[in-house]
Amino acid sequence: MTASTPELTQESRSAAFIFIFKKALISAFVAFVLFSLMIGIRTEAGPTGQLVYWTRFEDLATIVAIVFGGSIVIELLRRWWGPAPTARTLPPFVQRAASVARRTLPPLLLIFALLVPVVFYDQRYVIDTGIQVLTYVMLGWGLNVVVGLAGLLDLGYVAFYAVGAYSYALLATNFGLSFWVCLPLAGMLAACWGVMLGFPVLRLRGDYLAIVTLAFGEIIRLVIINWQSLTGGPNGVSGIPRPTFFGIPLTPGDEGLAARLGIEFSPTQRVVFLFYIILALALLTNWVAIRLRRLPIGRAWEALREDEVACRALGINTTTTKLTAFATGATFGGFAGAFFATRQGFISPESFTFQESALVLAIVVLGGLGSQFGVALAALTLIGGFELFRGFDQYRMIVFGMAMVLLMIWRPRGLVGHRAPTVFLKHSQAISSELTSEGRG
Amino acid sequence: MDYFAQQLINGIVLGSIYGLIAIGYTMVYGIVGMINFAHGDIFMIGGFIALISFLILVSIGLTAVPLILLIVLLVSMAITALYGWTVERIAYRPLRHSFRLAPMLSAIGMSFVLINYSQISQGARVKPVPPIITGGYSLLDRGGFVVRLSNVQILVVLTTIVLLAIFTWLVSRTRLGRDMRACEQDQTMAALLGVDVDRTISLTFVIGAALAAVAGMMYLLYYGLVDFFMGFVAGIKAFTAAVLGGIGSLPGAMLGGLLIGLIETFWSAYFSVEYKDVAAFSILIVVLIFLPTGLLGRPEVEKV
Amino acid sequence: MSGDIILSVDRLTMRFGGVVAVNDLSFAAERRKITALIGPNGAGKTTVFNCITGFYKPTSGAIRLTHDDGRGIQLDRLNDFRISKQARVARTFQNVRLFPGMTALENLMVAQHNALMLASGFTFLGLIGAPSFRKAEKHAIERATHWLDRIGLLGRADEAAGNLAYGDQRRLEIARAMCTEPALLCLDEPAAGLNARESSGLSELLLSIRDQGTSILLIEHDMSVVMEISDHIAVMDYGVKISEGAPREIRDDPKVIAAYLGVQDDEVAAVEQELGR
């Protein structure tokens, strides 16, 4: 509260209460109407195919009461916090702390990641979650090239993931090729698909580009489901071989790595191996992305995001620039897909829905477009958060959906609010993300 | 030939449903320039509301079918319109001056919320409903294939025509319609001239949602079932219809809807049923690449 | 026009639906000279620019650029980025179009994209850190630094372009265009919004650019700048050319005065008498 706010008199306080009460009443009434049928009545397909239903009026009453109470709480909070400040200037010690954090957190996080399998060797679940998080970090870094750097809104990123996964799965089960041979192949196939996808949609802007990429993603999924002779349809592909350590498999027998090293075999070893593979792949993605950003192509991507017309006026071929962005992002998606296939041993079209694309996109946006560290942090938060609520599938999706809405309202620029320039004369000054464009397509 | 005629009828009916949903997409895109990702799920909610309303009315003993239909129509339109209003207030209005990606991501979030809300509140299984309107007419019976026009089909098309007439009148003759067209052109100027922009935009969403509710109810009557995921695919197809007809054009949305309905029906009948969704999505891509302004839309020149 | 022509616009017409924005326009710009295209608002000047620089495809007519060595290029057939890349025509925009989230230095580096892409071996040499690329990059930074110095922004090279003052942004946009090493520089209202001191600074900059060998085509409303630096002027109104010649001739041309003041041609003499000219 600023010092200029006058003391609330008894009258204005009661007027405020009446206002809040009325607002809460309206919210409760709206909630009542909205939820009356959907929550108050529960239908279900009965045993003989007819429709049965029962009432849940207590649930309805509870929810309406929550809405009423919540509305009061929110309104009170809003008054207590005052109007949203238009220019948020942080005190200098916070800014200094933030810049120190910016420099030290990434290496710390890396060291932590390297040590996870060591520290949590007995808790396989933790290592598994770590693999999950790292997979999404890699996907996030891949999509970041397309959305964060080049400003091209891609809602169908899962298509590249799927192409990578199925490429490895089919090549391995049909031709017996090893993971290490198939990995670059998967990347290349995904890149080809990226170019084929990118080529026709280059002229499209913003929302239209988003919808078209979404359509492509869905087409891939439907083709996978229906082309049963090739992909096994809804049954998927199983028996996908696991990766070997330079040709030595990680199995319990005598040819296994454990036997050769003279240590006792444990199934955890394979999980640890997978962890380090995905960590290496993710770090490779990161390294390439950072390097590319400093090269002319990366700068062209960011310039494309800032102002496409100006790029064309400078002689930049925006068509090829967009295509390389798509292809690069696709390649990393393909790698991640191949890894996913080898980790699971089994894939099916159910893993490649639009929900996945939206999740990766949320990670990129939450992370702050273009920021590598932000994306990693966002993946950790979102996927970690998801894992915590495992078992509440639909509830966590509702929370995820509302979180996306709230994120857009409060912090649309993501967790990391700045951009680091790629070349500087004297010293690098972080540019506030309010200045950077989000791209028009 | 008879088979063809039957598919023609089926296609027009399906197209009417798509057209009603498409109008919502096109109106919203015209006025605020965003693709309302959650609109397909509003259609789904409309279907559910209609289902539950039917259930209640039947179980309290009402038997007059026309009366039931009318009540269900009004109730589902009203409640679904409120859903549309709420979604706009919560997820889109705060973002009106935010950057371009924001409303789209917010809409995607809202779509997830609606889909999972429906899944949690009504269970994940498909809900079947016994045919409420039965009977029809045999149009052609030359001993081979019988061409039938069912009463449901007549109802769907008639309802669509009536509603279309009402809303066309609304947009072109009333003050609200004029306000909507003003906001489409220039929101700031409209506000300066006394148009309540917030209310106009809200009403646009409300009308779109109401029409989607009708589509949901028609879908329920025609196909006899609803499920929580039906909004996703139908939404993309309806959006395709809106783009095909020319985004921003009301008659275009209906025309696009009919075309998509016909194409989908004929594709399923003559080629393959499994790939019918692929066909619809491919049309979207083809239209956006080669004919982005659609059939009845206005071409846009980029100002440099 | 006696000199060596670098750009010739021949019967250019641009139609948007029913509106004819440019009607049968012909004029020429001389090499190593400053040519100004002036006229009241809505005359079609920016449309002409957009046709020359490839953002619009002309409805009819020809635009031809002639290089130093005599090679000619038909600009009306090229895409926008090719015009910049192959014909070496650079432009600035009426509403400054910088890359606001990138620093001033980065803006100038983006302008040298094509040269750097070649040097980076289409990225591959760059990825492995080849010394040839590093040398090219150093060269590019030097060129950028040179221009930043010329426009007085060297001290602010690492600031976000979006944070710069308006006058600085305009000059940065010109410097960015110059970093593409153009033969012809097209400027769309470079003096708009500048005060008197900034305008004279701009005039100095443009004259020095011309003296170094770059030809300039300029749209401008600020008559002091136009009269001070132009070697040749073409005047447009309602999409057609109404006059062309040296600055002094244009200043005294009754048709031009009438276009700006908005009187009928036959009344011009009477108005002039009233004004005591």
Summary tags:
heterotrimer, A: 441 residues, mainly alpha, two-stranded antiparallel sheet, 16 helices, 4% strand, globular, C: 277 residues, alpha/beta, Rossmann fold, 2 domains, six-stranded mixed sheet, four-stranded antiparallel sheet, 12 helices, 10 strands, 40% helix, 23% strand
Structural description of this entry:
- The complex is a heterotrimer of chains A (441), B (304) and C (277).
- With 441 residues, chain A is mainly alpha-helical.
- Chain A has two domains: 18-81; 105-432, no CATH class.
- Helix content of chain A is 68%, strand content 4%.
- Chain A has a two-stranded antiparallel sheet. In chain A, strands 3-4 form a two-stranded antiparallel sheet.
- Chain A is globular, with a radius of gyration of 26 Å.
- The mean pLDDT of chain A is 83.
- By secondary structure, chain B is mainly alpha-helical.
- Chain B has a domain at 15-124 and 131-229.
- Chain B is 73% helix and 5% strand.
- Chain B is built from eleven helices and four strands; from the N terminus they run H-H-H-H-E-E-E-H-H-H-H-E-H-H-H.
- Chain B has helices spanning 2-32, 39-59, 65-92, 101-122, 151-173, 175-185, 187-192, 197-223, 230-245, 250-270, 276-290; strands at residues 127-128, 136-141, 146-150, 225-226.
- Chain B has a two-stranded antiparallel sheet.
- Chain B starts with a helix and ends in a 14-residue tail after the last helix.
- The relative contact order of chain B is 0.20.
- Chain C has two domains: 1-88 and 182-277, Rossmann fold (3-Layer(aba) Sandwich), CATH 3.40.50; 98-181, P-loop containing nucleotide triphosphate hydrolases (Rossmann fold).
- In chain C, strands 6-7-8-3-9-10 form a six-stranded mixed sheet, sandwiched between helices.
- The longest helix of chain C is centred in the middle third of the chain and has 20 residues, at 131-150.
- Chains in contact: A-B, A-C, B-C.
- Chains A and B meet through helix 1, strand 1, helix 7, helix 14 and helix 16 of A and helix 2, helix 3, helix 4, strand 1 and helix 9 of B.
